[in-house]
Amino acid sequence: MTALQEYLGRAASAGLLQEAGGFGFVADRCDDPFTGRRQVLVEYCDPGLPVSPDALEALRRALRDRGDEADAVLLRVAGDLRLPAPWRPRLTYVRHDRTPAAPGAGAPSPAGLTVRPATPADDPRVRAWLVQAFRNAYPGQDVEPGHPGVTAVMEAPDRLSFIAELHGEPIGHGTVLVREQDSVTGEEFAELVDTLVDDAGTRRAAIAALVAAAVRATGGRPLCGHVVHPYEPEAARGADSVLRALVAGDWSVDHCFWESPW
């Protein structure tokens, strides 16, 4: 039995496996931990559902008929598939291409740029960068250093953080959770939770060096990252630009969570 079959069996036993438009899906309530937005998460759907406008509408009707009260639906869609309005991207997961670069490929690193593993003494600095990253992703939200989402990352037993330094001064970090597992496919992977570099002049090179350090540290597991698509138009355009740059480089879209109003 495959991991997906086992997942669907567990969902069926829990009463979470349903059908819309002739396609199966698994859904449950899952509110946004940062915005508090009430959501129903469709964690799995048969591959034919997202490509059928009729099935997408049947899905929304089926969820409303369950009697849930929510503000939005989140639908996990594999690959780089685009959904029609009123669906909009909310969270895109990307996968790093581990193909080794040719010797000498890429721009040389600026003089004085180095990356090292973080130590416990770096924790306050790493926490502050994570807070800033979550504030960037969720504009207007009150994300403080003790926020549960930040603390969960900091206290994760599989967390590894790396510090980028310029002439010995810390300018940014990369933080990766190295032992994650996809709840649907069962695949083990490493998640690059965040890279953030304060120094604009070396940002591109520093992020590349941080990603390379994460790749080396993940024991051969696929390295995945994510891009949050904010609601505010300017921030959303910025996220789209980041995603296009990633896909134009060493990353590809693995799956995306699309959002629709309830």
TrEMBL record:
It comes from the Bacteria. This is N-acetyltransferase domain-containing protein. It comes from Streptomyces rameus.
